[in-house]
Design goal:
eight-stranded mixed β-sheet; 13 helices; binds iron/sulfur cluster; about 350 residues; TIM Barrel; alpha/beta; two-stranded antiparallel sheet; about 45% helix
Length: about 350
């Protein structure tokens, strides 16, 4: 962020924008996931400890003690090593007495290599939450997207984090398999759901976030999509995939978080297991709508939350009156122009 006198990475995990950003590493040490546009122009670097500590001092003078948490950046700061992180956290706590919680992104591959004692040490020092991209539990799909992790690694890493008492936020990606068939006779979307549910059931993350795939132009997957080598599922197909995922979640107590406009139904939020039936009922309400209404709902949600000329909304029950009329009008206009609503939305969202 150019307007700060200390270095801050460009990305905060969802809901952590009010944390102090502490850039321990730059970029992503992996940087090969084919759907991911983040950090593509950034050379990976573990920033020298002295530089990070100096930044903390500058940030303290500049910002004052006004934060409750610090977000350690960028994509996988745990790769810097436990002692490196502990030294940074120590300085942050000295200079920002109000900060008691540290959060970061973390890759499963890195987490599973940490010793249980190291995770416990980090937790004792205030490392509170890690957010990781699981994306899928289906190994052929994890290979296809170059995730650099397997279901086994995801499970081992997740269980270690939980055992250390650190809050685990796992993100999975509906629609990631498109209409691929990576193994003969096995529709990828179906095995993506089944194996993802298996991983989540074994780990029981505190938070389960859903973030539907958008094949972002400029990424390898985005270019495959443009070249017709990867086909997206339709919105209703993705919603059916999510329904099967929710149905397959068993014995977990995760908080479900779909609250991002990338998702067809950002209102699917609740606590497992007690809200499972409510979530499934919300999905069924969407699936019962006509194709035109489903398209218009999606357009309305995206445009109304991106400054469009529609009062902001994201719930099905709000899809009525002016919101519905305006959304349907835009939908029909796109259809007359021969523009697929999903292609239009991709442009808006990317
Ligand atoms: S998804 Fe995460 S691990 Fe993969 S390239 Fe992007 S930032 Fe790196």
């Amino acid at each position: 962020m150019a307007d700060k006198p200390y270095e801050v990475g460009p990305i905060f995990s969802q809901g952590e924008g009010k944390s102090l950003g502490v850039r321990v590493t730059k970029g992503c040490n992996w940087n090969r996931c084919i759907f991911c546009p983040a950090y593509k122009g950034t050379d990976f670097e573990v920033r020298p400890l002295d530089d990070v500590l100096k930044d903390v001092d500058v940030a303290a003078d500049y910002e004052g003690d006004r934060f409750e948490s610090a977000f350690l950046q960028d994509a996988d700061p745990l790769i810097a090593g436990t002692q490196h992180l502990l030294a940074v956290m120590d300085r942050v706590k000295q200079r920002f007495p109000s900060i008691t919680r540290f959060l970061s992104y973390g890759r499963s591959h890195t987490l599973q290599r940490l010793g249980q004692d190291e995770l416990a040490e980090l937790a004792a020092a205030g490392y509170y939450k890690v957010a990781r991209g699981v994306e899928s539990g289906y190994d052929p799909l994890l290979r296809y997207i170059h995730k650099g992790a397997t279901a086994r690694i995801h499970i081992a890493a997740g269980q270690k984090v939980k055992e250390a008492g650190i809050v685990l936020s796992d993100c999975v990606m509906p629609g990631l398999g498109g209409d691929l068939e990576l193994e003969v006779g096995k529709p990828t979307w179906l095995y993506h759901v089944r194996e993802t549910a298996r991983v989540i059931n074994e780990v029981n993350p505190d938070i389960l976030r859903l973030r539907t795939l958008i094949p972002v132009p400029g990424t390898i997957l985005g270019e495959r999509y443009r070249a017709g080598l990867f086909n997206r599922l339709s919105d209703p197909e993705i919603v059916r995939e999510i329904r099967l995922l929710f149905e397959s979640l068993d014995g977990i107590t995760s908080n479900i978080d779909c609250n991002i406009v990338f998702n067809v139904l950002p209102e699917l939020n609740g606590q497992m297991p007690e809200d499972k039936e409510k979530l499934l009922a919300g999905i069924d309400k969407y699936l019962a709508m006509s194709e035109e209404e489903q398209g218009a709902f999606r357009i309305g949600v995206v445009l109304s939350n991106r400054g469009g000329n529609i009062p902001p909304f994201f719930r099905l029950e709000q899809f009525k009156g002016t919101r519905k009329e305006k959304s349907l009008r835009i939908m029909r206009k796109l259809q007359r122009q021969g523009i697929k609503p999903e292609d239009y939305l991709m442009q808006v969202l990317t």
